[in-house]
Write a structure and sequence with these properties.
With 553 residues, this protein is of the alpha/beta class. It has 4 domains: 6-173, P-loop containing nucleotide triphosphate hydrolases (Rossmann fold, 3-Layer(aba) Sandwich), CATH 3.40.50; 179-240, Helicase, Ruva Protein, domain 3 (Orthogonal Bundle); 245-355, Up-down Bundle (Zinc Finger, Delta Prime, domain 3); 365-516, no CATH class. 52% of the residues lie in helices and 8% in strands. It has 27 helices and 8 strands. It has helices spanning 6-9, 22-33, 51-61, 77-80, 100-110, 132-143, 163-166, 179-192, 199-208, 213-225, 233-240, 245-256, 260-272, 277-296, 303-310, 317-336, 340-355, 368-375, 377-381, 396-399, 403-416, 420-428, 443-450, 469-477, 479-490, 501-516, 536-545, and strands at residues 40-44, 89-93, 120-125, 149-155, 170-173, 453-457, 461-466, 495-500. The chain has a 5-stranded parallel sheet with strand order 2-3-4-1-5, with helices on one face. Strands 6-7-8 form a 3-stranded mixed sheet. Helix 16 (317-336) runs antiparallel to helix 17 (340-355). The longest helix has 20 residues, at 277-296. It is elongated. It starts with 5 loop residues before the first helix and ends in an 8-residue tail after the last helix.
Protein backbone atom coordinates (compact mmCIF):
# COMPACT_ATOMS: atom_id res chain seq x y z
CA UNK A 1 0.00 0.00 0.00
CA UNK A 2 1.29 3.45 -0.91
CA UNK A 3 2.32 5.88 1.83
CA UNK A 4 -0.42 8.10 3.26
CA UNK A 5 0.66 11.49 4.58
CA UNK A 6 0.10 12.03 8.29
CA UNK A 7 -2.43 14.83 7.88
CA UNK A 8 -4.66 12.52 5.78
CA UNK A 9 -4.07 9.53 8.02
CA UNK A 10 -5.04 11.41 11.18
CA UNK A 11 -7.83 13.58 9.75
CA UNK A 12 -10.79 13.49 12.21
CA UNK A 13 -13.68 11.22 11.22
CA UNK A 14 -16.09 12.25 13.98
CA UNK A 15 -16.81 15.39 15.98
CA UNK A 16 -15.13 14.02 19.11
CA UNK A 17 -11.81 13.85 17.18
CA UNK A 18 -11.89 17.52 16.19
CA UNK A 19 -9.27 19.75 17.86
CA UNK A 20 -9.77 23.37 18.86
CA UNK A 21 -13.22 24.17 17.39
CA UNK A 22 -15.43 23.26 20.36
CA UNK A 23 -17.98 26.06 19.83
CA UNK A 24 -18.60 25.22 16.15
CA UNK A 25 -18.83 21.48 16.89
CA UNK A 26 -21.26 22.01 19.79
CA UNK A 27 -23.66 24.13 17.71
CA UNK A 28 -23.64 21.70 14.80
CA UNK A 29 -24.25 18.71 17.08
CA UNK A 30 -27.14 20.48 18.82
CA UNK A 31 -28.71 21.33 15.47
CA UNK A 32 -28.68 17.64 14.54
CA UNK A 33 -30.07 16.50 17.91
CA UNK A 34 -32.89 19.08 17.78
CA UNK A 35 -33.46 18.51 14.06
CA UNK A 36 -32.85 22.19 13.27
CA UNK A 37 -30.60 21.70 10.28
CA UNK A 38 -30.01 24.68 8.04
CA UNK A 39 -29.94 24.55 4.27
CA UNK A 40 -26.71 26.54 3.79
CA UNK A 41 -23.60 27.14 5.92
CA UNK A 42 -20.44 29.22 5.51
CA UNK A 43 -17.31 27.91 7.27
CA UNK A 44 -14.68 30.67 7.24
CA UNK A 45 -11.28 30.86 8.89
CA UNK A 46 -7.52 30.35 8.44
CA UNK A 47 -6.18 27.37 6.54
CA UNK A 48 -5.68 24.09 8.34
CA UNK A 49 -8.20 24.77 11.11
CA UNK A 50 -10.70 22.01 10.24
CA UNK A 51 -13.26 23.61 7.91
CA UNK A 52 -13.37 20.85 5.31
CA UNK A 53 -12.96 18.06 7.89
CA UNK A 54 -15.92 19.31 9.95
CA UNK A 55 -17.97 19.77 6.76
CA UNK A 56 -17.40 16.10 5.87
CA UNK A 57 -18.23 14.94 9.40
CA UNK A 58 -21.39 17.08 9.44
CA UNK A 59 -22.43 15.69 6.05
CA UNK A 60 -22.20 12.13 7.45
CA UNK A 61 -23.71 13.03 10.83
CA UNK A 62 -26.93 14.43 9.32
CA UNK A 63 -27.31 11.19 7.36
CA UNK A 64 -26.12 8.79 10.11
CA UNK A 65 -28.70 6.07 10.82
CA UNK A 66 -27.84 5.92 14.51
CA UNK A 67 -26.14 9.16 15.48
CA UNK A 68 -25.03 9.60 19.08
CA UNK A 69 -25.76 13.05 20.51
CA UNK A 70 -25.30 14.57 17.09
CA UNK A 71 -22.08 12.69 16.29
CA UNK A 72 -21.56 9.84 13.82
CA UNK A 73 -21.93 6.33 15.21
CA UNK A 74 -19.10 4.93 13.09
CA UNK A 75 -20.91 1.60 12.55
CA UNK A 76 -23.86 2.13 10.18
CA UNK A 77 -23.76 1.83 6.38
CA UNK A 78 -23.52 5.63 5.99
CA UNK A 79 -20.53 5.91 8.33
CA UNK A 80 -18.69 2.97 6.79
CA UNK A 81 -18.89 4.13 3.17
CA UNK A 82 -15.64 5.39 1.68
CA UNK A 83 -15.28 8.78 0.03
CA UNK A 84 -15.48 7.31 -3.49
CA UNK A 85 -18.77 5.58 -2.64
CA UNK A 86 -20.54 8.66 -1.27
CA UNK A 87 -22.64 9.68 -4.24
CA UNK A 88 -24.87 11.91 -2.10
CA UNK A 89 -21.98 13.86 -0.54
CA UNK A 90 -20.37 15.93 -3.28
CA UNK A 91 -17.13 17.83 -2.66
CA UNK A 92 -16.23 20.53 -5.20
CA UNK A 93 -13.04 22.57 -5.47
CA UNK A 94 -14.14 26.07 -6.49
CA UNK A 95 -10.57 26.99 -7.45
CA UNK A 96 -10.76 24.72 -10.51
CA UNK A 97 -14.54 24.62 -10.96
CA UNK A 98 -15.41 28.28 -10.67
CA UNK A 99 -17.44 28.89 -13.79
CA UNK A 100 -21.16 29.46 -14.19
CA UNK A 101 -21.60 26.17 -16.07
CA UNK A 102 -20.39 24.09 -13.11
CA UNK A 103 -22.77 25.88 -10.74
CA UNK A 104 -25.69 25.42 -13.15
CA UNK A 105 -24.94 21.70 -13.19
CA UNK A 106 -24.99 21.63 -9.37
CA UNK A 107 -28.29 23.55 -9.40
CA UNK A 108 -29.87 21.06 -11.79
CA UNK A 109 -28.59 17.98 -9.90
CA UNK A 110 -29.75 19.43 -6.56
CA UNK A 111 -33.36 19.03 -7.69
CA UNK A 112 -32.93 15.25 -7.80
CA UNK A 113 -33.61 13.24 -4.65
CA UNK A 114 -30.66 11.61 -2.84
CA UNK A 115 -29.83 8.12 -4.05
CA UNK A 116 -29.14 6.55 -0.66
CA UNK A 117 -29.12 9.14 2.10
CA UNK A 118 -31.63 11.47 3.70
CA UNK A 119 -29.75 14.59 2.57
CA UNK A 120 -27.71 15.45 -0.48
CA UNK A 121 -24.77 17.59 0.73
CA UNK A 122 -22.65 19.86 -1.47
CA UNK A 123 -19.32 20.96 0.04
CA UNK A 124 -17.82 23.79 -2.02
CA UNK A 125 -14.22 24.39 -0.91
CA UNK A 126 -12.50 27.77 -1.46
CA UNK A 127 -15.87 29.20 -2.50
CA UNK A 128 -14.47 32.72 -2.74
CA UNK A 129 -12.82 31.63 -6.01
CA UNK A 130 -16.18 31.44 -7.81
CA UNK A 131 -16.76 34.03 -10.53
CA UNK A 132 -19.41 36.71 -10.13
CA UNK A 133 -21.70 34.98 -12.61
CA UNK A 134 -21.24 31.68 -10.76
CA UNK A 135 -22.27 33.30 -7.47
CA UNK A 136 -25.32 34.77 -9.18
CA UNK A 137 -26.27 31.34 -10.51
CA UNK A 138 -26.01 29.95 -6.98
CA UNK A 139 -28.18 32.63 -5.37
CA UNK A 140 -31.63 31.31 -6.31
CA UNK A 141 -30.79 27.77 -5.15
CA UNK A 142 -29.45 29.09 -1.83
CA UNK A 143 -32.59 31.16 -1.28
CA UNK A 144 -35.11 28.39 -2.02
CA UNK A 145 -33.28 25.06 -1.94
CA UNK A 146 -35.03 21.67 -2.04
CA UNK A 147 -35.61 20.32 1.48
CA UNK A 148 -33.20 17.44 0.88
CA UNK A 149 -30.19 19.63 -0.03
CA UNK A 150 -27.53 21.18 2.25
CA UNK A 151 -24.79 23.52 1.01
CA UNK A 152 -21.55 23.99 2.99
CA UNK A 153 -19.34 26.78 1.63
CA UNK A 154 -15.77 26.75 2.99
CA UNK A 155 -13.42 29.73 2.56
CA UNK A 156 -10.23 31.32 3.85
CA UNK A 157 -11.22 34.74 2.46
CA UNK A 158 -14.70 35.52 3.71
CA UNK A 159 -14.48 39.16 2.58
CA UNK A 160 -14.58 38.03 -1.07
CA UNK A 161 -17.98 36.37 -0.78
CA UNK A 162 -20.86 38.62 -1.98
CA UNK A 163 -23.10 39.88 0.81
CA UNK A 164 -26.11 38.50 -1.06
CA UNK A 165 -24.69 34.99 -0.60
CA UNK A 166 -23.69 35.59 3.03
CA UNK A 167 -27.19 36.74 3.98
CA UNK A 168 -28.63 33.39 2.84
CA UNK A 169 -26.29 31.24 4.96
CA UNK A 170 -25.47 30.47 8.57
CA UNK A 171 -21.91 31.64 9.22
CA UNK A 172 -19.39 29.85 11.43
CA UNK A 173 -16.02 31.40 12.26
CA UNK A 174 -13.13 28.97 12.68
CA UNK A 175 -10.39 30.25 14.98
CA UNK A 176 -6.68 29.48 14.98
CA UNK A 177 -6.04 26.41 17.10
CA UNK A 178 -4.26 26.98 20.42
CA UNK A 179 -0.62 25.93 20.65
CA UNK A 180 -1.28 23.62 23.61
CA UNK A 181 -4.01 21.78 21.62
CA UNK A 182 -1.67 21.35 18.64
CA UNK A 183 1.04 19.97 20.95
CA UNK A 184 -1.37 17.37 22.37
CA UNK A 185 -2.36 16.28 18.86
CA UNK A 186 1.26 15.99 17.71
CA UNK A 187 2.15 13.94 20.80
CA UNK A 188 -0.78 11.61 20.07
CA UNK A 189 0.38 11.13 16.47
CA UNK A 190 3.96 10.41 17.58
CA UNK A 191 2.67 7.82 20.02
CA UNK A 192 0.57 6.16 17.33
CA UNK A 193 3.52 6.17 14.92
CA UNK A 194 5.86 4.83 17.62
CA UNK A 195 8.20 7.79 17.14
CA UNK A 196 9.92 10.14 19.60
CA UNK A 197 10.93 13.81 19.41
CA UNK A 198 12.27 16.22 22.00
CA UNK A 199 9.55 18.32 23.62
CA UNK A 200 11.23 21.56 22.48
CA UNK A 201 10.96 20.42 18.84
CA UNK A 202 7.26 19.57 19.25
CA UNK A 203 6.62 22.93 20.89
CA UNK A 204 8.50 24.75 18.11
CA UNK A 205 6.49 22.96 15.40
CA UNK A 206 3.26 23.94 17.17
CA UNK A 207 4.30 27.60 17.48
CA UNK A 208 5.59 28.02 13.95
CA UNK A 209 2.41 26.53 12.47
CA UNK A 210 0.58 29.67 13.64
CA UNK A 211 -2.65 27.98 14.67
CA UNK A 212 -2.91 25.68 11.63
CA UNK A 213 -3.06 22.03 12.72
CA UNK A 214 -2.66 20.73 9.17
CA UNK A 215 0.53 22.79 8.74
CA UNK A 216 1.83 21.43 12.05
CA UNK A 217 1.16 17.80 11.07
CA UNK A 218 2.73 18.33 7.64
CA UNK A 219 5.86 19.80 9.25
CA UNK A 220 5.98 16.89 11.70
CA UNK A 221 5.79 14.54 8.70
CA UNK A 222 8.78 16.31 7.11
CA UNK A 223 10.79 16.24 10.32
CA UNK A 224 10.22 12.51 10.77
CA UNK A 225 11.27 12.02 7.13
CA UNK A 226 14.76 13.27 8.03
CA UNK A 227 15.18 9.71 9.34
CA UNK A 228 17.94 10.67 11.79
CA UNK A 229 18.62 8.89 15.04
CA UNK A 230 18.70 12.16 16.97
CA UNK A 231 16.82 15.07 15.38
CA UNK A 232 17.80 18.49 16.77
CA UNK A 233 16.06 21.86 16.74
CA UNK A 234 18.75 23.11 14.33
CA UNK A 235 17.70 20.40 11.86
CA UNK A 236 14.16 21.75 11.95
CA UNK A 237 15.43 25.34 11.53
CA UNK A 238 17.36 24.27 8.45
CA UNK A 239 14.40 22.33 7.06
CA UNK A 240 12.00 25.29 7.02
CA UNK A 241 14.49 28.16 6.62
CA UNK A 242 13.69 29.49 10.09
CA UNK A 243 15.58 32.50 11.47
CA UNK A 244 16.06 32.83 15.23
CA UNK A 245 14.69 35.90 16.99
CA UNK A 246 18.09 37.05 18.30
CA UNK A 247 19.43 37.19 14.75
CA UNK A 248 16.42 39.23 13.59
CA UNK A 249 16.88 41.66 16.49
CA UNK A 250 20.54 42.07 15.49
CA UNK A 251 19.45 42.84 11.92
CA UNK A 252 16.96 45.45 13.19
CA UNK A 253 19.67 47.05 15.27
CA UNK A 254 21.90 47.49 12.23
CA UNK A 255 18.98 48.93 10.26
CA UNK A 256 18.12 51.43 12.99
CA UNK A 257 21.69 52.73 13.35
CA UNK A 258 21.79 53.28 9.59
CA UNK A 259 24.51 50.70 8.86
CA UNK A 260 23.98 49.76 5.21
CA UNK A 261 26.95 47.38 4.96
CA UNK A 262 26.03 45.20 7.95
CA UNK A 263 22.33 45.18 7.01
CA UNK A 264 23.11 43.81 3.55
CA UNK A 265 25.57 41.30 5.03
CA UNK A 266 22.81 39.87 7.21
CA UNK A 267 20.51 39.54 4.19
CA UNK A 268 23.28 37.84 2.18
CA UNK A 269 23.82 35.31 4.97
CA UNK A 270 20.10 34.53 5.08
CA UNK A 271 19.80 33.97 1.33
CA UNK A 272 22.96 31.87 1.16
CA UNK A 273 21.56 29.70 3.96
CA UNK A 274 18.23 29.36 2.11
CA UNK A 275 16.32 31.15 4.84
CA UNK A 276 12.65 31.95 4.29
CA UNK A 277 12.52 35.65 3.37
CA UNK A 278 8.73 35.81 3.59
CA UNK A 279 9.00 34.50 7.14
CA UNK A 280 11.73 37.08 7.88
CA UNK A 281 9.53 39.93 6.65
CA UNK A 282 6.64 38.71 8.78
CA UNK A 283 8.85 38.55 11.88
CA UNK A 284 10.19 42.06 11.25
CA UNK A 285 6.61 43.35 11.02
CA UNK A 286 5.70 41.60 14.27
CA UNK A 287 8.70 43.03 16.13
CA UNK A 288 8.17 46.58 14.83
CA UNK A 289 4.52 46.33 15.88
CA UNK A 290 5.63 45.13 19.33
CA UNK A 291 8.06 48.08 19.63
CA UNK A 292 5.16 50.50 19.05
CA UNK A 293 3.04 48.67 21.64
CA UNK A 294 5.92 48.57 24.14
CA UNK A 295 6.52 52.32 23.82
CA UNK A 296 2.88 53.04 24.63
CA UNK A 297 2.02 50.45 27.30
CA UNK A 298 3.36 49.05 30.56
CA UNK A 299 4.00 45.35 31.32
CA UNK A 300 2.26 44.15 28.16
CA UNK A 301 4.95 41.59 27.21
CA UNK A 302 7.09 39.21 29.24
CA UNK A 303 10.07 40.74 31.04
CA UNK A 304 12.63 38.94 28.86
CA UNK A 305 10.94 40.11 25.64
CA UNK A 306 10.60 43.68 26.92
CA UNK A 307 14.36 43.70 27.59
CA UNK A 308 14.88 43.03 23.87
CA UNK A 309 12.39 45.72 22.79
CA UNK A 310 13.78 48.28 25.21
CA UNK A 311 16.85 49.00 23.11
CA UNK A 312 14.59 50.52 20.43
CA UNK A 313 12.39 52.52 22.82
CA UNK A 314 14.09 55.87 22.22
CA UNK A 315 13.64 55.82 18.45
CA UNK A 316 11.14 58.39 17.20
CA UNK A 317 7.71 56.76 16.99
CA UNK A 318 6.98 58.40 13.62
CA UNK A 319 10.05 56.69 12.16
CA UNK A 320 8.94 53.33 13.58
CA UNK A 321 5.54 53.77 11.95
CA UNK A 322 7.23 54.59 8.60
CA UNK A 323 9.27 51.39 8.96
CA UNK A 324 6.10 49.36 9.52
CA UNK A 325 4.52 50.84 6.38
CA UNK A 326 7.60 49.98 4.31
CA UNK A 327 7.65 46.41 5.64
CA UNK A 328 3.94 45.90 4.89
CA UNK A 329 4.54 47.02 1.31
CA UNK A 330 7.52 44.65 1.16
CA UNK A 331 5.32 41.76 2.30
CA UNK A 332 2.94 42.37 -0.60
CA UNK A 333 5.80 42.68 -3.11
CA UNK A 334 7.39 39.39 -1.98
CA UNK A 335 4.21 37.49 -2.89
CA UNK A 336 4.45 38.72 -6.48
CA UNK A 337 8.21 38.80 -6.98
CA UNK A 338 10.28 36.16 -8.76
CA UNK A 339 13.50 37.53 -7.20
CA UNK A 340 12.79 38.08 -3.51
CA UNK A 341 16.37 38.98 -2.56
CA UNK A 342 16.54 42.06 -4.81
CA UNK A 343 13.13 43.27 -3.64
CA UNK A 344 14.15 42.74 -0.01
CA UNK A 345 17.41 44.67 -0.50
CA UNK A 346 15.62 47.66 -2.03
CA UNK A 347 13.08 47.90 0.78
CA UNK A 348 15.69 47.41 3.53
CA UNK A 349 17.79 50.19 2.00
CA UNK A 350 14.76 52.48 2.18
CA UNK A 351 14.52 51.73 5.91
CA UNK A 352 18.24 52.13 6.58
CA UNK A 353 18.29 55.51 4.81
CA UNK A 354 15.64 56.77 7.24
CA UNK A 355 18.26 56.45 9.98
CA UNK A 356 21.44 57.02 7.99
CA UNK A 357 22.58 60.60 8.53
CA UNK A 358 25.46 60.17 6.06
CA UNK A 359 27.97 61.28 8.67
CA UNK A 360 31.47 59.89 8.98
CA UNK A 361 32.02 57.52 11.84
CA UNK A 362 33.45 59.02 15.00
CA UNK A 363 37.19 58.44 15.40
CA UNK A 364 38.20 55.56 17.60
CA UNK A 365 38.35 56.45 21.29
CA UNK A 366 41.98 55.37 21.61
CA UNK A 367 43.01 58.13 19.17
CA UNK A 368 41.33 60.95 21.11
CA UNK A 369 44.22 61.61 23.51
CA UNK A 370 46.78 61.32 20.68
CA UNK A 371 44.95 63.95 18.63
CA UNK A 372 44.86 66.25 21.64
CA UNK A 373 48.57 65.87 22.12
CA UNK A 374 49.17 66.75 18.48
CA UNK A 375 46.88 69.78 18.44
CA UNK A 376 47.36 71.15 21.97
CA UNK A 377 50.47 69.66 23.55
CA UNK A 378 50.50 72.25 26.31
CA UNK A 379 47.16 70.89 27.65
CA UNK A 380 48.20 67.25 27.91
CA UNK A 381 51.82 67.61 28.94
CA UNK A 382 51.53 70.27 31.64
CA UNK A 383 50.98 69.23 35.22
CA UNK A 384 47.71 70.31 36.85
CA UNK A 385 49.47 72.29 39.58
CA UNK A 386 51.55 74.23 37.01
CA UNK A 387 48.65 75.10 34.66
CA UNK A 388 46.06 77.82 35.20
CA UNK A 389 42.45 77.20 34.13
CA UNK A 390 42.13 77.28 30.33
CA UNK A 391 40.59 80.42 28.91
CA UNK A 392 38.85 80.09 25.53
CA UNK A 393 40.21 82.50 22.98
CA UNK A 394 37.93 84.53 20.76
CA UNK A 395 38.57 82.92 17.41
CA UNK A 396 36.42 80.89 15.02
CA UNK A 397 38.17 77.60 15.85
CA UNK A 398 37.01 77.84 19.45
CA UNK A 399 33.48 78.96 18.59
CA UNK A 400 32.50 76.40 15.98
CA UNK A 401 33.11 72.85 17.14
CA UNK A 402 31.75 69.71 15.48
CA UNK A 403 30.24 66.76 17.33
CA UNK A 404 33.51 64.82 17.39
CA UNK A 405 35.36 67.68 19.06
CA UNK A 406 32.61 68.10 21.65
CA UNK A 407 32.81 64.37 22.37
CA UNK A 408 36.60 64.55 22.86
CA UNK A 409 36.29 67.59 25.11
CA UNK A 410 33.61 66.00 27.31
CA UNK A 411 35.62 62.81 27.69
CA UNK A 412 38.69 64.86 28.60
CA UNK A 413 36.73 66.99 31.07
CA UNK A 414 35.22 63.93 32.78
CA UNK A 415 38.75 62.60 33.40
CA UNK A 416 40.10 66.00 34.41
CA UNK A 417 37.86 66.16 37.47
CA UNK A 418 37.21 62.44 38.06
CA UNK A 419 36.40 61.76 41.69
CA UNK A 420 35.42 58.45 43.36
CA UNK A 421 33.33 60.13 46.05
CA UNK A 422 31.36 62.08 43.44
CA UNK A 423 30.80 58.86 41.51
CA UNK A 424 29.61 57.03 44.64
CA UNK A 425 27.09 59.79 45.45
CA UNK A 426 25.87 59.82 41.83
CA UNK A 427 25.47 56.04 41.66
CA UNK A 428 23.67 55.92 45.04
CA UNK A 429 20.90 58.08 43.61
CA UNK A 430 20.89 56.46 40.15
CA UNK A 431 17.94 54.17 40.97
CA UNK A 432 15.77 57.27 41.32
CA UNK A 433 15.49 57.18 37.54
CA UNK A 434 12.95 54.35 38.01
CA UNK A 435 10.47 56.93 39.36
CA UNK A 436 10.27 58.50 35.88
CA UNK A 437 9.64 55.30 33.86
CA UNK A 438 5.89 55.51 34.42
CA UNK A 439 5.80 59.10 33.12
CA UNK A 440 5.25 58.91 29.35
CA UNK A 441 7.36 62.04 28.80
CA UNK A 442 10.44 60.37 30.28
CA UNK A 443 9.80 56.63 29.77
CA UNK A 444 12.18 56.18 26.82
CA UNK A 445 14.93 58.34 28.29
CA UNK A 446 14.69 56.69 31.71
CA UNK A 447 14.85 53.20 30.18
CA UNK A 448 17.88 54.21 28.14
CA UNK A 449 19.65 55.71 31.17
CA UNK A 450 19.04 52.58 33.23
CA UNK A 451 20.85 50.53 30.59
CA UNK A 452 23.95 52.71 30.96
CA UNK A 453 26.84 52.57 33.41
CA UNK A 454 28.25 55.86 34.78
CA UNK A 455 31.99 55.12 34.60
CA UNK A 456 33.56 58.54 35.23
CA UNK A 457 31.92 61.27 37.31
CA UNK A 458 33.29 64.75 37.98
CA UNK A 459 31.68 67.89 39.37
CA UNK A 460 30.42 68.94 35.92
CA UNK A 461 30.92 66.01 33.57
CA UNK A 462 29.83 62.35 33.38
CA UNK A 463 31.03 59.64 31.02
CA UNK A 464 28.48 56.82 30.47
CA UNK A 465 29.08 53.45 28.79
CA UNK A 466 26.76 51.06 26.94
CA UNK A 467 27.05 47.47 25.78
CA UNK A 468 25.47 48.20 22.39
CA UNK A 469 26.41 50.74 19.71
CA UNK A 470 22.76 51.55 19.10
CA UNK A 471 22.21 52.58 22.72
CA UNK A 472 25.29 54.82 22.81
CA UNK A 473 24.23 56.47 19.55
CA UNK A 474 20.67 57.03 20.79
CA UNK A 475 22.02 58.49 24.02
CA UNK A 476 24.24 60.98 22.17
CA UNK A 477 21.36 61.96 19.87
CA UNK A 478 19.23 62.82 22.92
CA UNK A 479 21.86 64.43 25.15
CA UNK A 480 19.94 67.65 25.80
CA UNK A 481 16.78 65.84 26.94
CA UNK A 482 18.79 63.42 29.10
CA UNK A 483 20.62 66.32 30.72
CA UNK A 484 17.24 67.86 31.61
CA UNK A 485 16.12 64.59 33.19
CA UNK A 486 19.34 64.32 35.21
CA UNK A 487 18.87 67.90 36.38
CA UNK A 488 15.39 66.98 37.68
CA UNK A 489 16.86 64.09 39.65
CA UNK A 490 20.16 65.55 40.86
CA UNK A 491 19.17 69.25 40.96
CA UNK A 492 22.31 69.97 39.01
CA UNK A 493 23.29 70.34 35.38
CA UNK A 494 25.84 67.88 34.04
CA UNK A 495 27.63 67.84 30.71
CA UNK A 496 27.39 64.21 29.53
CA UNK A 497 28.65 61.87 26.81
CA UNK A 498 28.29 58.14 26.05
CA UNK A 499 30.61 55.54 24.53
CA UNK A 500 30.50 51.74 24.09
CA UNK A 501 32.08 49.23 26.50
CA UNK A 502 34.62 48.40 23.81
CA UNK A 503 35.62 52.05 23.48
CA UNK A 504 35.75 52.35 27.26
CA UNK A 505 38.24 49.50 27.61
CA UNK A 506 40.63 51.18 25.16
CA UNK A 507 40.11 54.58 26.76
CA UNK A 508 40.71 53.21 30.26
CA UNK A 509 44.02 51.67 29.17
CA UNK A 510 45.03 55.01 27.68
CA UNK A 511 44.05 56.82 30.88
CA UNK A 512 46.05 54.41 33.10
CA UNK A 513 49.06 54.79 30.82
CA UNK A 514 48.84 58.59 31.01
CA UNK A 515 48.61 58.50 34.81
CA UNK A 516 51.70 56.29 34.98
CA UNK A 517 53.55 58.76 32.74
CA UNK A 518 52.34 61.66 34.90
CA UNK A 519 50.29 63.10 32.03
CA UNK A 520 47.31 65.07 33.36
CA UNK A 521 43.96 65.97 31.85
CA UNK A 522 43.05 69.63 32.08
CA UNK A 523 39.51 71.02 31.96
CA UNK A 524 38.59 72.64 28.63
CA UNK A 525 35.76 75.16 28.49
CA UNK A 526 32.99 74.30 26.04
CA UNK A 527 31.79 77.04 23.75
CA UNK A 528 28.27 76.98 22.26
CA UNK A 529 28.28 76.60 18.49
CA UNK A 530 26.97 79.68 16.72
CA UNK A 531 25.98 79.85 13.09
CA UNK A 532 27.11 82.78 10.99
CA UNK A 533 24.53 85.41 10.21
CA UNK A 534 24.42 84.90 6.50
CA UNK A 535 21.32 86.82 5.55
CA UNK A 536 20.39 90.47 5.75
CA UNK A 537 16.88 89.48 6.91
CA UNK A 538 18.26 87.58 9.90
CA UNK A 539 20.41 90.54 11.02
CA UNK A 540 17.48 92.94 10.62
CA UNK A 541 15.23 90.66 12.73
CA UNK A 542 17.81 90.49 15.50
CA UNK A 543 18.17 94.27 15.53
CA UNK A 544 14.41 94.63 16.02
CA UNK A 545 13.54 91.72 18.35
CA UNK A 546 16.86 90.95 20.01
CA UNK A 547 19.11 87.96 19.41
CA UNK A 548 17.74 85.97 22.35
CA UNK A 549 14.27 85.78 20.73
CA UNK A 550 15.50 84.47 17.38
CA UNK A 551 15.67 80.65 17.55
CA UNK A 552 17.63 78.99 14.76
CA UNK A 553 16.58 75.59 13.52
Amino acid sequence: MSYISLYRKYRPHKFSDVVGQEVVVKILQNSIVENKIGHAYIFSGPRGTGKTSIAKIFAKAVNCLNNKKGDVCGKCDVCNKGQTEEIDIVEIDAASNNGVDEIREIRNNAKLLPSLYKYKVYIIDEVHMLSTSAFNALLKTLEEPPSHVIFILATTEFNKIPITVVSRCQKFDFKKIKTKDIIKRLELILKEENKELDSNIIEFIAKVSDGGLRDAINLLDQVLSLNKEQITLEDVYSLIGYIEDDSIFDLLEQMFVGNITNTLKYLDEYTQSNKNLSFLCGKLIDIVKDIIIYCNTNNYFSKSYEDKLNKFSTIDIDQIIKVSEILLNLQNELRRSSNQKIVFEIYLLRIVLLFNKKEEESPKIESIIEEKEAKKPEIIEKKVEDTPKKEVENNPDNIEKNDDEIKKIRINNAFSGANKELKTKFVDKFDSINDYISQKEYTSLANLLLKSTPEVVSDKNILFTFKKDIDANLFNLNIEEIQKLLKLIYKKKYSIIAITDEEWQDLKKEYINNIKNDVKYEYIEEKVVKKAKNTELQMNMESVFGEELIKEE
